[in-house]
Design goal:
The protein contains eight helices and ten strands. By secondary structure, the protein is α+β, with helices and mostly antiparallel strands. It folds into two domains: 2-154, Glutaredoxin (3-Layer(aba) Sandwich), CATH 3.40.30.10; 173-218, 2-Layer Sandwich (Antioxidant, Horf6, Chain A, domain 2), CATH 3.30.1020. A five-stranded mixed sheet has the order 5-4-3-6-7. Strands 8-10-9 form a three-stranded antiparallel sheet, with no helix packed on it. Bound molecules: benzoic acid (BEZ). Benzoic acid (BEZ) is lined by residues 47-48, 51-54, 150-151.
Length: 218
């Protein structure tokens, strides 16, 4: 696919301020900045209502809603379907499985929000949003983005792990190594000066590979 200027300039990136918008959702008309105020937000798109992989994913978010709320995190879904379709699908899933998607799902019928967030990847689908996940912090900054294709569902364990890793990194001022999980040691920021380097070399408290790779309990 040829990359157009439009797709190039409308892809939000990590570190960007999350674009604000007002949209029709399953919980009513909603302005993102009001909904997101002082909260983490995990915003995710799905290709279409009444499709099998999407149903498994959105049900998983609904089942984990309390877990996210306990971590100060609001959920928000999106697809390029009407609110009538969303309502019928939410009700169908509730009737068939008992799982109720109570978080707002944006009815992005004019693709306004999908375009704003770079959720449309024309090489994958011209008419449906890909499976995106945006992690947005309480300052409204996009901190992590995941994109999955139409035929592969996301991993809820990884979505939860990534959120906890971001929040723990902010709190501890440490970085998280490969495969970090809650309870694991975290990486202490590497020294920036010769003096800090010597202090780190002398440090006996941390688990050290070398002065630039040291871990501690958090
Ligand atoms: C699904 O969720 O199953 C799906 C949606 C769009 C394209 C392919 C699969």
């Amino acid at each position: 696919m040829q990359t157009t200027i439009e797709t190039a300039i409308t892809m939000p990136r990590i570190g960007d301020q999350a674009p604000d918008f007002t949209a029709v959702t399953t919980t009513g008309k909603l302005t993102f900045s009001d909904y997101a105020k002082d909260s983490w937000v995990v915003m995710f798109s799905h290709p279409a209502d009444f499709t099998p992989v999407c149903t498994t994913e959105m049900s998983a978010f609904a089942k984990e809603a309390d877990w996210f709320a306990e971590r100060g995190t609001k959920l928000m879904g999106l697809s390029i379907d009407s609110v009538h379709s969303h309502l019928a699908w939410v009700n169908n899933v509730r009737e068939k499985t008992g799982v109720y998607m109570e978080f707002p799902i944006i009815a992005d019928i004019d693709m306004k929000v999908s375009k704003l967030y770079g959720m449309l990847h024309p090489g994958e689908s011209a008419t449906a949003a890909v499976r995106a996940v945006f992690f947005i912090d309480p300052k409204g900054v996009i901190r992590l983005i995941m994109y999955y294709p139409m035929n592969v569902g996301r991993n809820m364990h990884e979505i939860k792990r990534a959120l906890v890793a971001l929040q723990t990194s902010d709190e501890s001022k440490c970085a998280m190594p490969i495969d970090w999980r809650p309870g694991d040691k975290a990486i202490v920021p590497p020294p920036k000066t010769l003096r800090e380097m010597d202090e780190r070399i002398a440090n006996t408290e941390y688990e050290k590979i070398d002065f630039y790779l040291a871990k501690k309990d958090i």
